[in-house]
Amino acid sequence: MTHPPITPVLLCGGSGTRLWPLSRKSFPKQFAPLTGSESLFQLSARRLAGPGLAAPMIVTGSDFRFIVTEQMSAIGITPSAVLIEPSGRNTGPAVLAAALTVEAATPGALMLIAPSDHVIPDAAALRAAVMAGVPAALSGQIVTFGIRPDRAETGYGWLELTRPAGDFTPVPQPLKRFFEKPDLARATQMLNGGHHLWNAGIFLFTTTTILQAFADHAPDMLDPARAAVDQAKCDLSFTRLDPAEWTRIRDISIDYAVMEKAANLTVLPSAGRWSDLGGWEAVWRESGPDANGVVVSGDARAIDCENSLLRSEAPGLSLVGIGLQDIVAVAMPDAVLIAHKDRAQDVKLAVETLKKAGRAQAETFPRDHRPWGWFESLALGPRFQVKRIHVHPGAALSLQSHHHRAEHWIVVEGTARVTIDDQVKLISENQSVFIPLGSKHRLENPGIVNMVLIEVQTGAYLGEDDIIRYDDVYARGQGAKG
């Protein structure tokens, strides 16, 4: 059967804390390489590319827009659109905005909604299941995908089937109902009963079907969503939804807004592996523990350990565990987590504790990604800060000045083109330059290799919001990230 290409919609605006300290508000888990060399977002984009699938649409937040385009470029995939949410309002508004945008370009088009932070190792099986669901979607059904459960999981939503799943062949059947995260007794009963699947949060439908579903079950959301899309502004390759209209939309998940009320639901069972990587225990499980149940990553070593996860996320920082059992240990340059595996879901308590103490580590990742590259703080003290700045080939920082700090730049790799007021000069490796307080300045990488420099800031205030932009090739406004 031939059908129009399906538009995958990747949702990547979340900022979960259950994988702290690797996942933080400023750099959430979908952009991190948790199970290999590529990020969960990149792996999601790859598995939703192929015959019958159009270029993906991305829905994300403003702070992540350049991370999205950089990571997509790195795997050779160009999105059809990147919608920028003015604020996170859960999956309901995100799906609705995407549906209205796709409908405007191709009325009645097929859409596949997928989270960008899940692990699905068998991409071919997922694509085959999606194609198996196309006839039902074209007939006006909302198609969801259920995973064969292998344990009494209380952290997932479940799907109740109208008949036993049998061998979990991906054949469409009516869905009886959604069941939100159960307690252990109920989860055990559902696991043994054979009539329930895990809810993967992946949906296939036409724009006509989902817009009608919103009209039937959440009509109050349609007008502000249409206005947010109609009044959206183009910003480089991004589409910024209108902020004022966006705030009028209810903050609600797609499950609560539509799925739990709709009668036209079809489910496709799947026997493939799947995980939402909702905590460090899930990362341990999906990383393939050795015969002793141990997983190590980076510069980490385990001696006489059992059923433990040890990760060092900082080059040169050695993490050694001795005699550990059922322990999660994750070392970052600025924070270390040590927890019993049974308490891995309580990592949010660490974030809350640090937020109350005013610690930046609660939400801010040590490496700050920008459209031109990234920087990280190496040392911070009263009236000084030392940073490593990495600038991609051909990239340029904004023309800017600072009210409260001066800067010293020392190039350690590549060549920098430096503008200071009305002077422009090239600075090579082992050379340095001083940027006086208040001077208009710009840093560029004119070469074809990465440029790295060490920046020493001195002054009374060293916050990232002390930036006045005069010109920027990335069209950013004022503020830390513009």
Structural class: alpha/beta
- CATH 4th-level superfamily of the largest domain: Spore Coat Polysaccharide Biosynthesis Protein SpsA, Chain A
Overall geometry = globular
Instruction: Give start-end ranges of low-pLDDT stretches.
Output: none
Supply the CATH architecture of the largest domain: Alpha-Beta Complex
Across the major sheet, the strand order is: 18-19-20-27-22-25
What can be said about the biggest beta sheet?
6 strands, antiparallel
Total beta strand runs: 28
| Count of alpha/pi helices | 12
Quaternary state of this entry equals single chain
What does this structure look like?
- This protein has 482 residues and is of the alpha/beta class.
- The protein folds into 3 domains: 7-270, Spore Coat Polysaccharide Biosynthesis Protein SpsA, Chain A; 280-354, no CATH class; 367-471, Jelly Rolls.
- It has helices at residues 40-47, 65-74, 91-105, 123-132, 134-138, 184-193, 207-217, 222-230, 243-246, 254-259, 280-286, 347-356, and strands at residues 7-11, 57-61, 81-85, 110-115, 142-147, 158-161, 173-179, 196-206, 233-235, 238-240, 265-270, 295-297, 300-303, 309-312, 319-322, 327-331, 336-340, 367-370, 373-381, 384-391, 399-401, 405-413, 416-420, 423-427, 432-435, 441-444, 451-459, 468-471.
- The two termini are 47 Å apart.
